[in-house]
Specification:
By secondary structure, the protein is α+β, with helices and mostly antiparallel strands. It has 15 helices and 5 strands.
Length: 494
């Protein structure tokens, strides 16, 4: 009993009934035009006559007119919005946007015609039947009604037969509710088939999702580079200053330089963060943010300390800007981890431009220290792989003969012509405007950014010794021009 009442008068049934009435309201202009055609044919009748011939003739003329207007681009979005809100169908089963292609347009025409056609019938019944049913149900209580056309038509003008009008009127109302519920259920069942996505719609939706994910990944890399580098550099510089003060040495110059580096880093990072968040606010996905290139390598290596040996072959000025920015980021990631975890061991970096390929390799000894896992798993090597893949190149890292080797190969031909949305987004962030190891500032601010800071399996490679908590001191971030002094930690920047 409760299930039947819910099926006829529940919220879903009422919404579907409203959806049918909406279809009837939309059909009214077509019906009015139909009366102008059907009226003269049906013995000069008009819309104000009660002639069934005029009424149904106008209905028959109006349906083809509704089908023609369903070809307009806005028809499907409008129909989808109404069906999604009122038919009780899962939103994901509907197509988005105007219909494209012959099949999608044909299905939209079928849905619009079906909605308006059934809606017109149910709306007409909803307007006409309730007053009639109430009048029939009131026959036992009104002599005037029993002697009227209603009572005589149904042969309910007798004193006892009139009582049959009460259940008959209620059955009429119940039948109207059942017809509306059944018609609404049929429309809801047809909605996914007629308004669902076609193969073209699915392809377009997949392309939109891929573009949205690309933008999200790009912004994530931007925030990771900007905020992650800055927080890491601030932490390391503050830790180095604290250790100097705890040691009792009166090297106030070292502490002053560390605090200056923290101040400069945080001030610059505020601007960088605002630039990245500006992309989120504006919704732009093709903006280009400035970033250093391979011309800033010397400063990056100087900031990494004396344990780094850089070898360059070829004219790096010939490398396209997009590739140069990505290559700088890759070197920064690998060098930061290697210097942080090698603990003064020699780090060898080689960059060679040969033909249409730029090769980057870095290696440092493995010390065998157990890794310290990061909760998020790190992003360093994954970021390197993403940067290389965006340019059509490859990157890999792993132990080899007692050493950790990081290598990347980047094409410098067609890959160098990629637009900013494809490449500059991955690496073109302004957070490394100071990443060139500006003296006294945490330029690369990237020790933890390499995700080797915590030594997860992803970053164990780049980190040299997986998961090493890292040598204390300012030199723990490659590209950070750490304060120098007699108490500076081993491997500190020059």
């Amino acid at each position: 009993m409760r299930r039947g009442r819910r099926a006829l008068f529940g919220q879903r049934a009422r919404r579907r009934w409203l959806h049918l009435i909406l279809g009837g309201a939309l059909f009214m202009p077509y019906w009015l035009v139909g009366t102008l055609v059907a009226g003269p044919i049906a013995d000069g009748g008009t819309m104000f006559t009660g002639s069934p011939a005029v009424q149904f003739g106008a209905y028959a003329v109006g349906l083809p007119l509704a089908a023609l207007t369903a070809l307009f681009p806005l028809t499907r979005p409008m129909s989808v919005a109404a069906a999604r809100a009122l038919c009780g169908v899962a939103p994901g089963r509907f197509a988005e946007g105007p219909a494209r292609g012959r099949d999608a347009k044909a299905r939209t025409v079928a849905w619009f015609t079906l909605h308006l056609g059934t809606g017109a019938l149910v709306s007409g019944a909803s307007l006409a039947l309730p007053p009639f049913a109430l009048a029939v149900a009131a026959l036992p209580f009104s002599t005037e009604l029993r002697t009227s056309e209603i009572g005589r038509f149904w042969h309910l003008d007798g004193p006892w037969l009139a009582w049959a009008g009460l259940p008959l009127g209620l059955l009429m109302l119940l039948g109207l509710a059942a017809a509306a519920a059944g018609t609404g259920a049929l429309l809801a069942a047809a909605a996914p088939r007629l308004l669902g996505p076609s193969p073209t719609d699915r392809l377009a939706a997949a392309e939109r999702r891929a573009a949205e994910l690309a933008v999200r990944n790009r912004l994530a890399r931007e925030l990771h580079d900007s905020v992650g580098h800055a927080l890491s550099a601030v932490t390391l510089q503050a830790g180095a200053a604290r250790r100097v003060l705890d040691s009792g040495a009166a090297d106030l110059g070292f502490v002053r330089e560390a605090l200056t580096a923290i101040e400069d880093t945080t001030r610059r990072t505020v601007g960088e963060l605002d630039a990245v968040l500006g992309l989120l606010r504006s919704g732009e996905d093709d903006g280009e943010l400035s970033a250093p290139g391979l011309d800033a390598l010397d400063a990056l290596v100087r900031g990494a300390g004396p344990a780094v040996e850089l070898t360059v072959r070829g004219d790096l000025a010939a490398v396209p800007d997009a590739v140069s920015r990505e290559a700088y980021r890759i070197v920064q990631e690998g060098l930061t981890n290697a210097v942080r975890h090698a603990r003064g061991e020699k780090v060898t970096a080689r960059i060679a431009l040969s033909g249409d390929e730029l090769e980057i390799s870095m290696e440092n000894p493995l010390t065998g220290t157990a890794p310290v896992a990061r909760p998020d798993g790190g992003r360093g090597l994954r970021g390197i792989a993403e940067r290389a893949r965006l340019l059509g190149g490859t990157a890999g890292a792993g132990p080899q003969d007692g050493r950790w080797l990081l290598s990347a190969r980047l094409p410098v031909g067609a890959a160098g012509t990629l637009g900013p949305a494809e490449t500059a987004g991955a690496a073109g962030t302004p957070e490394t405007a100071g990443a060139a190891g500006t003296p006294g500032t945490a330029g690369a601010v990237g020790a933890a950014e390499t995700a080797g800071a915590a030594g997860t399996p992803e970053t164990a490679g780049a980190a040299g010794t997986p998961g090493r908590a890292g040598a204390a001191g300012a030199a723990e971030t490659a590209g950070t021009a750490a304060p120098t002094g007699p108490n500076a930690p081993a491997g500190g920047a020059r």
